[in-house]
């Protein structure tokens, strides 16, 4: 067994930026998350959703149950930009119950990267 074989991702932190409304990009993000968590089940993940990407995390999202399962089983935090919510005239009650807010998505992404989080653009 090599070190790579025993690496469960503990200590690694990844921030995904998600901004796309289209179903193919949503599906790609879910696939990326599942692949990452299969390889590194202990990795810490934050998904920063803003702009048109909000469709992924509304109460009507077709991926609501999948995302809830991932959040419950892994160290995943999903946050939405408060500016984006206001621009779409939505609020946190319109989002999946495990979604949190951040004041400004871009600031959140910058802070995470400054703290050493790996950055991934989610979707296609």
Estimate the strand proportion: 15-25%
From the helix content, strand content and strand pairing, which structural class follows?
A: alpha/beta
The tally of structural domains comes to: 1
Under CATH, the homologous superfamily reads DsrEFH-like
Any idea what the shape is? globular
Overall residue-averaged pLDDT value? 94
| Number of separate helices | 5
Task: Please describe what this structure looks like.
It contains five helices and five strands. The model has no long low-confidence stretch (mean pLDDT 94). By secondary structure, the chain is α/β, with parallel strands linked by helices. Helix 4 links the parallel strand 3 (75-81) and strand 4. It has one domain (11-121): Hypothetical Protein Ychn, Chain: A.
What's the helix and strand layout?
Layout: H1 3-6, E1 13-18, H2 23-39, E2 44-49, H3 64-73, E3 75-81, H4 82-87, E4 100-102, H5 105-114, E5 118-121
Features:
124 residues; alpha/beta; Hypothetical Protein Ychn, Chain: A; five-stranded parallel β-sheet
Offer a concise description of the structure.
By secondary structure, this protein is of the alpha/beta class. It has helices spanning 3-6, 23-39, 64-73, 82-87, 105-114; strands at 13-18, 44-49, 75-81, 100-102, 118-121. Strand 1, helix 2 and strand 2 (44-49) form a beta-alpha-beta unit.
